[in-house]
Design brief:
The protein is of the alpha+beta class and 341 residues long. Helices cover 37% and strands 20% of the residues. The chain has 11 helices and 12 strands. Strands 4-3-2-6-5-1-11-12 form an 8-stranded mixed sheet. Helix 2 packs antiparallel against helix 3, helix 3 packs antiparallel against helix 4 and helix 9 packs across helix 10. The N and C termini lie far apart (42 Å). It binds aspartic acid. The site of aspartic acid (ASP) has 13 residues, from strand 8.
C-alpha cells in the first residue's frame, strides 16, 4: 500500500471505530422502559424450579418481586435434602453449618448476612437487616443475636445425613471443592458422578414483577468443609448478586473466591447496560475468570445467570452441567447453560 493509501485506509478505519464507539455509547446504554405485566422469575440449578413455583404465585397475583424472591428461596432453605442451601447444608470443617445470604430490591436497597448459624431462613434475616437497620451486612454472632432479637428461633441445622457426610470427610479431611458438573441433588445417585457427591451450590434468584421492577436473592451454605468463618460470594452485593432496576439483575453460583475477584454479578449487570445480551454478558464474566488463571478455571465450576428488563434471560458457566429454572407466563422450564469447557 502506498503511504497515501495507507493514511487513507487508517483514517477510514479509525473514523469507523469512532463512529462505532459513539454508536455503542449513545445507542446501547440499556435504560429503556421495562416490560409491564409480563412477570418472570429465574433461578440457579434444577432445585430452582420448586423455588420459582412459590415465587410465581406472588408474581402472578401482581405481588412485588422482592416478596417473590424471598419466598422463593425459602423453599430450598427449608429443604433438608438440599445439602448446599439452608437447613441440611453441609457444614464447615468443624461441623458447623454456616449460612450466607443477601437480598436486593429495585431501589438499590440491600441486606446481607454472613456466616450465620442456627437460623433456617438467612434470607429473611438479610431482608430484616435491609429494612430495619441502617446497615447492609451483619456477620457471625452479631447476625445471630440480631436474628434472635427479632423473633427468629434457634435450630440445629446439621441433619443426620450431613453429619454423616462430614464424618466421612473427616477420615481424609482433604479440602477439595468438587466440580458440580451435574445435579446430583435431583437424581440422588450420590457418588455416581465423577468426583463423588458435589459439595457446593447456591440458589440465586432474579425476578421482575408486573410493574417491571426487579429484585434478587441469593442464599447458600457455601463450600462444604470450608475453614470456619469463610464467606463466599453469595452474600456479597455485587459478587453473588446485583440488581439495577434500569438494567436487570445477575447472580452467581460456583467457587465464590473466583466470583469475588471479578465482582461477577455487578460486572454482568454493567455489561448488559452497555448492550450485551444476558448470555453474552455472562459469557464475558466467565471468560474474565479464565483470563485471570486459565489453569484454575479448568478445575472449578462457576455459573452466572442474568435477566434484563426486556425479560430476556441467559446464563454461562465454566464446566458443563450448570442448569437454571425459568418461570413466566409462557414456560416453566429447566435450561442447561452453555459452557466454555
Ligand atoms: N458460591 C457459593 C460459595 O462460594 C457456592 C456455590 O454456589 O457453589 O459459597
Amino acid at each position: 500500500m502506498s503511504s497515501r493509501r495507507k493514511f487513507l485506509h487508517s483514517a477510514v478505519v479509525s473514523s469507523a471505530a469512532v463512529l462505532t464507539g459513539e454508536k455503542l455509547f449513545a445507542g446501547s446504554l440499556y435504560t429503556g422502559n421495562p416490560v409491564l405485566n409480563d412477570p418472570i422469575v429465574i433461578s440457579t440449578w434444577d432445585f430452582g424450579k420448586a423455588a420459582n413455583a412459590t415465587a410465581w404465585e406472588i408474581l402472578n397475583k401482581g405481588g412485588r418481586a422482592l416478596n417473590a424472591v424471598e419466598a422463593g428461596v425459602m423453599v430450598p432453605e427449608a429443604d433438608e435434602s438440599n445439602q448446599s442451601v439452608g437447613y441440611g447444608g453441609l457444614p464447615d470443617r468443624d461441623g458447623k453449618v454456616t449460612l450466607d445470604a443477601c437480598i436486593m430490591d429495585e431501589n438499590y436497597n440491600c441486606g446481607s448476612v454472613m456466616c450465620l448459624e442456627h437460623i433456617v431462613h438467612p434470607i429473611s434475616v438479610a431482608r430484616m437487616v435491609m429494612e430495619k437497620t441502617p446497615h447492609i451486612i451483619l456477620a457471625g454472632d452479631g447476625a445471630l443475636q440480631f436474628a434472635l432479637a427479632n423473633g427468629f428461633t434457634k435450630q440445629n441445622l446439621l441433619t443426620p445425613k450431613s453429619e454423616h457426610d462430614w464424618k466421612e470427610w473427616l477420615k481424609t479431611a482433604k479440602y477439595e471443592p468438587v466440580k458440580n458438573i451435574e445435579n446430583q441433588l435431583y437424581d440422588k445417585k450420590e457418588g455416581a458422578m465423577p468426583g463423588g457427591p458435589k459439595n457446593h451450590d447456591t440458589i440465586g434468584m432474579l425476578a421482575m414483577d408486573k410493574a417491571g421492577n426487579f429484585s434478587g436473592a441469593c442464599t447458600t451454605s457455601g463450600m462444604a468443609y470450608k475453614i470456619h468463618g469463610r464467606v463466599g460470594d453469595s452474600p456479597i452485593i455485587g459478587a453473588g448478586l446485583y440488581v439495577d432496576n434500569e438494567v436487570g439483575g445477575a447472580t452467581a453460583t460456583g467457587v465464590g473466591e473466583e466470583v469475588i475477584r471479578i465482582v461477577g454479578a455487578h460486572l454482568i449487570v454493567e455489561l448488559m447496560r452497555q448492550g450485551l445480551s444476558p448470555e453474552a454478558a455472562c459469557k464475558e464474566g466467565v471468560e474474565r475468570i479464565i483470563k485471570r488463571n486459565p489453569k484454575k478455571a479448568k478445575e472449578v465450576q462457576v455459573g452466572f445467570l442474568a435477566l434484563n428488563k426486556k425479560g430476556e434471560f441467559g446464563a454461562y458457566c465454566l464446566q458443563k452441567g450448570f442448569t437454571y429454572a425459568v418461570r413466566n407466563n409462557r414456560e416453566e422450564k429447566i435450561y442447561t447453560a452453555p459452557s466454555i469447557y
